[in-house]
Amino acid sequence: MTSSVRWERHGHVVTVTIDRPQRRNAMSFETLQSLRDGVARARAESDVRLLVITGAGDKAFCAGADLGGVRGEELDAEAAHEDRGRLAELFRTMWSSGIPTVAKVHGYALAGGFGLAMACDIVIASDDAVFGTPEVGVGLWPYMITVPLLRSMPPKVALELMMTGRRVGAVEAQRLGFVNEVVAPGELDAAVDRVGEQIVAQSPTAIRLGRTSFYRALDSSTEQALALLQSMLSVATTTADASEGVAAFAEKRTPVWKVSRS
C-alpha cells in the first residue's frame, strides 16, 4: 500500500480507505492501482469475508479522478490510454474477488467515486452523502462507470444522471434503489459493522458461489442465467458448508462454517 490508500484488517473484515482527504479523496492513477492491490491482498488472505471501501476525512467518500494529476500524466497519449483502464481493472478485481464488498459513503461520491461506490455489493451512506456524474459539465462523459451504474439502478435513471450531471442526496439515492441504507453521520460506522457482522456470520462458500452466480446471471440472457443457476445449485449441494448447514439445522445448533473461501 502507498500513502494514498490505507489497508486495515480486523478479524474477517478488511477496510480499504482512500487517504487523500486534502484532495477529497480524488483518485490518481497511482491511487487506482493501490486500491486494486488492496483488493487483491484481501483476496490472497483466504479467511477474509468482507471488504469495506471508504474515504478518509468527513468531506468525501471519493470526488472522482484527480484531474490535476491526470493532466500531468497525459503527456504520453498511449500510456495515458492504458492508465485509464485502471478503473476498469479495479472493478474486475472487486467483482472476481469472491469477497462481498460494502461502500461506506459520506460526503461527496462523484464521477469515478460514484462508480466505485456502485461497484460495491452494498452501499451504506450517511445522510450527508451526495452522488453524481458531473463529467458532462466539463465536456466529458462518465464512460468508465457506465457498467456499475447500470448494475445498480434502472437504465433511464443512470442516463438521466449522466446527461444532466445533477447531484442526488442520500435519501433520494435510497429511493432510486442504488443506496441500501441511509443513517446519520455518527451512526455510519455502526451501520456498516452491523451489516458486516450479518454477512460474516454466513457460509463463506455459499456467499462466494452465490455472489458470483448473481453477477453472472445479471449479465446473461434469461435462458443462459437459468442454465447457469441450475448448474450452480448442483455444485452448491456438494459443498462442505451445505452439508454442515443441513446437519446443524437438523441438530438445532449453530453451524460451524469452513473458514477458507478456497
UniProtKB/TrEMBL annotation:
GO molecular-function term, one example from the UniProt record: enoyl-CoA hydratase activity
Native species: Haloechinothrix alba
One Pfam family recorded for the sequence: ECH_1
GO annotation terms (biological process): fatty acid beta-oxidation
PANTHER family according to UniProt: ENOYL-COA HYDRATASE, MITOCHONDRIAL, ENOYL-COA HYDRATASE-RELATED
Listed SUPFAM superfamilies: ClpP/crotonase
Organism phylogeny: Bacteria, Bacillati, Actinomycetota, Actinomycetes, Pseudonocardiales
InterPro entries: ClpP/crotonase-like_dom_sf, Enoyl-CoA_hyd/isom_CS, Enoyl-CoA_hydra/iso, Enoyl-CoA_hydra_C
Family as reported in the entry's similarity comment: Belongs to the enoyl-CoA hydratase/isomerase family.
Keyword annotations of the record: Lyase
Name of the protein in its database record: Enoyl-CoA hydratase/carnithine racemase
Gene3D superfamilies: 2-enoyl-CoA Hydratase, Chain A, domain 1 (3.90.226.10), Lyase 2-enoyl-coa Hydratase, Chain A, domain 2 (1.10.12.10)
Annotated catalysed reactions: a 4-saturated-(3S)-3-hydroxyacyl-CoA = a (3E)-enoyl-CoA + H2O; a (3S)-3-hydroxyacyl-CoA = a (2E)-enoyl-CoA + H2O
Coiled-coil regions, chain positions: none
